[in-house]
Amino acid sequence: xxxxxxxxxxxxxxxxxxxxxxxxxxxxxxxxxxxxxxxxxxxxxxxxxxxxxxxxxxxxxxxxxxxxxxxxxxxxxxxxxxxxxxxxxxxxxxxxxxxxxxxxxxxxxxxxxxxxxxxxxxxxxxxxxxxxxxxxxxxxxxxxxxxxxxxxxxxxxxxxxxxxxxxxxxxxxxxxxxxxxxxxxxxxxxxxxxxxxxxxxxxxxxxxxxxxxxxxxxxxxxxxxxxxxxxxxxxxxxxxxxxxxxxxxxxxxxxxxxxxxxxxxxxxxxxxxxxxxxxxxxxxxxxxxxxx
Amino acid sequence: xxxxxxxxxxxxxxxxxxxxxxxxxxxxxxxxxxxxxxxxxxxxxxxxxxxxxxxxxxxxxxxxxxxxxxxxxxxxxxxxxxxxxxxxxxxxxxxxxxxxxxxxxxxxxxxxxxxxxxxxxxxxxxxxxxxxxxxxxxxxxxxxxxxxxxxxxxxxxxxxxxxxxxxxxxxxxxxxxxxxxxxxxxxxxxxxxxxxxxxxxxxxxxxxxxxxxxxxxxxxxxxxxxxxxxxxxxxxxxxxxxxxxxxxxxxxxxxxxxxxxxxxxxxxxxxxxxxxxxxxxxxxxxxxxxxxxxxxxxxxxxxxxxxxxxxxxxxxxxxxxxxxxxxxxxxxxxxxxxxxxxxxxxxxxxxxxxxxxxxxxxxxxxxxxxxxxxxxxxxxxxxxxxxxxxxxxxxxxxxxxxxxxxxxxxxxxxxxxxxxxxxxxxxxxxxxxxxxxxxxxxx
Lengths: 292, 443
Prior knowledge:
Chain A is α+β, with helices and mostly antiparallel strands. Chain A has eleven helices and eight strands.
């Protein structure tokens, strides 16, 4: 009969067998021992690979979590509290729940408030504009409006408002990964606590110029008058370099500073409308600005 | 056959509108603003306070590091304040405001026009006088001159090159200086030769200034070791490395300095400033500024005190024309657009150029068609299209490996690009980012 077939089958089977034995020992020799928990933790993480945790991707975050001894400093901003608690219980740690954060663009220099004094026609990129000069308005701190933050956002949570020329953050989509914070050459965007019922109060300006200079460049600039600092009952507001800053950990959302601010540079978000008495006070305040 | 550099280069329209306008002394302003950071390196630290009365030539701010320069008062008057203001760079930086009162000079400064050719000072004395006077490279880079004069140990200067190329279109300040102050420039050259202890100096001048070449050639006969070299017109011949290649046919390696091939390059403006500092005791408080543009009524060259507002110079030329689209400090190729005209003239301002609306507008950017024109015109032999892509994609390691740091920002690539791509904008970004990465790595 056809012995060739038999020889072929035999020789290949023997060759296969020998190779299998060799491969078995080689595999034993070069075995990579990996903690199976890494894979489990990775599957629990959202898999967005956004880098918001500070590591290159979810896999690296999972490795760090397994290696770590507590959850301190390790937080996935994208996933909600239940995911992090789940991982903590799986790894036998105590869960440290961090308050959810959201990106906030601290510039209100719309075309109306902050008139342009020249036109920028270079490459459409904030970093390039920032290398060249201090911006197309009198304010050398504010938003350049070329939209680097929008490009950086992987979650579609930002867009440039064509009317104001400023970035808008869609709160429901923002996961506070911090990509926009890193992309902004002017350091306008900050991650702040989302707050109770998503209510927030912040100074929407980062102009460090003296009051008169800032006000001349932008109608809604913080002029560093210090009125908010005085009125704040919780000492949450600090004034440095002609600029007020509200510490979101201390702020109790009483809204006193919002009423007090003469340039309306303190913003309140998602609050119900004020009562009549407060509204009158606010009107009064606005009138005094106009007469000034 | 005239000399020139071999690799790359472009030929922009010359437009030397103010070439025949003699240098006029600009009027003194009422309020002057003297920026503290007028040079490359650390800003000078002020030694005067608000309310102090200063004389012309008095020290205002002291050099605050190795790469830094003194700043002297160009005016007499009272110090009004020391505050941040937007200067010619477009950024907010500290400056000294002076309320100008009269014109009261320090007595040590010789204000006569008599030529003093004799100098008995030693090399180190000349260098220290240059340092004292706060002289920086007046070609535009504003690198403190005394550092270039102190040759590091182990290296030797063989030749001094004086840069009278003025390859930027429109600008004529160096041209006028060579014509009107030829002798002073030549004495300055000899002082620089003495400071470096070299016996040979070349003054490179582009062939579009035949009167200056002729004038200096006649004068140079009286100065031993100084030779005038006419050069073929090509941009960017005023670049240090291009000038060395053109005149001496030596190639400065990537990352090296001209001193590594035995050459030191100074601008003619610097040579003149050195003459005034050493022979006349006058610190660097004035410079020549060209104010020009196609729509400007009288394109002129001014002798301006540092700190004079740019507005005043433009007014003196007949005001800002109605069709102005962009105002640039420096030349059209490497200059920087100004945010407003309300900025003071600083040591590095060689010209103020007013583009009309049509010239100013950047054409619409189109996709790269891979024609390779940018590669063929790059005088440094780089690949601008590639560097731009790396920068766009934030590939900083690749940028560094493709020698982005060798780019001298001459703008030839962007000038020649048929798709109007903002090549230089992106290369500048990669230069600043890669520079930062290199600095942190060294620490």
